[in-house]
Fold this protein.
Amino acid sequence: MKDSKITEEELKHQDELTDMLRDILYIRAGNKQPKASVRTYGCQQNVADSEKLKGMLEKMGCALTDDYNEADIIIFNTCAVREHAEDRVFGNVGALKALKKKKPSLLIGLCGCMMEQEHIAQKIYKSFPYVGLVFGTHVIHKFPELIYNCVTSGKRLVERGSDDGEIYEGLPLHRDGSFKGWLPIMYGCDNFCTYCIVPHVRGRERSRRPNSVLAEARSMVKAGYKDITLLGQNVNSYGKGLDEETDFASLLQSVADIEGDFWVRFMTSHPKDASKKLIDTIAANDNICNHLHLPFQCGSDRVLKKMNRRYTKEKYLEIANYAKSKIPDLSLTSDVIVGFPGETEEDFEETLELIKEVKFTSLFTFIYSPRVGTPAAKFDDPYTHEDKAKRMGRLLKVQESIAAERCASMVGKTYRVLVEEQAREGVLNARTQNNIVVELNAPTELIGTFQYAEITEARNWILRGKIV
Ligand code: SAH
Ligand code: SF4
Ligand code: F3S
């Protein structure tokens, strides 16, 4: 296999530029510590990339801030998965114009999935002249060099890499959380579902070596992380192309074997590659969360075929039912697309049937959004947005009662929970292993700790509990 790890020389080169930037950015900020904001759109892959960008910015001497008014550098890490995601970015970039006018030295950079699309990068370049830096998902390791070139030349810069993609090892990292953390195990996607832009903007699938993943997992556990999520667009094909024999279930088992009190979870699992071995591994380990995010997208075989998902409703139900039978209290969650081009009433009803049969804890629901350059964008579609929105309403109603039923069935039981954050004065949000939020009356000192909570009340899909 071609080793797509970033080379030592490259890392060293970026380190040297980082050192120089410490002085340059300090002077640019008016002889004080420069401040930087990174705003993330999209999925956990982007969140994980932003943690690297923030790590690099800190190494350049920047303090991180959420307040754009005081920032010297603002970076938007963008998402291209649906039109709505892109529109939000365009709107928010537009709003930065006034800031740039007030502070001409402000460096505005846009990166992430949107920037890997030629037509979008062009549009940004033309329509937003105050954006100084545009870079894609394949070059984030060159971030110091890009900033350096931008500030020393005073010119606007657009940079994108090759579709083969890189494996990011050895980059600085600033994790957003102190007890909940993301751990990318692979990058890219080779599945080419016909509606999806991700393979086009994230490049080919490539896995990190098990040793690198395990070393990072160990260091997270040692640093006190209690909830670690292994990340990939399709974790079930982990290891493909590596010269050592491995698979995702083995990797997951090795992470679970690390000494310490922590939970491990993962996303996303593609149903076509979800193995019984994976389910058995979850069932056999207390610290692997009994939560499986298994996107089905649609319940109709005809549509699944047009989506290039490479499983049938029957195959999906087989693996979902196997998981339910093996893992007590399993929480199954999923993504579903409503209104894929040509989806008929009968197709849609099959989706409803599947939802009723599996009884998902929660669903991420999306109305189909055509993406430039994907095959589905050219498919015939006789249905209007209004038809699709109506179907979505029906789907949400079905799911609402299933979720409420599921929550009600938890009342009176006691669960181990991880206390996560303050919801409001005197109330904390905790999360069960199966990813359900429980509100607790408890002091903030408990944030970041495991507790046992008895569920006392279920209101729709919100649970209330007390610490026992
Ligand atoms: N790799 C993951 C999905 C990543 S994208 C998987 O295969 O499960 C997250 C979700 O966005 C997808 O599961 C899908 O439901 C939704 N999605 C992707 N492209 C979309 C599009 N063009 N329109 C609507 N929803 C889309
Ligand atoms: Fe997109 Fe399909 Fe890849 Fe998921 S598996 S990222 S939906 S192409
Ligand atoms: Fe969006 Fe890119 Fe993730 S398109 S969903 S941020 S991989």
In short: The pocket of iron/sulfur cluster (ligand 2) is lined by residues 189, 191-193, 196, 198-199, 233-234, 270 (CB under 6 Å).
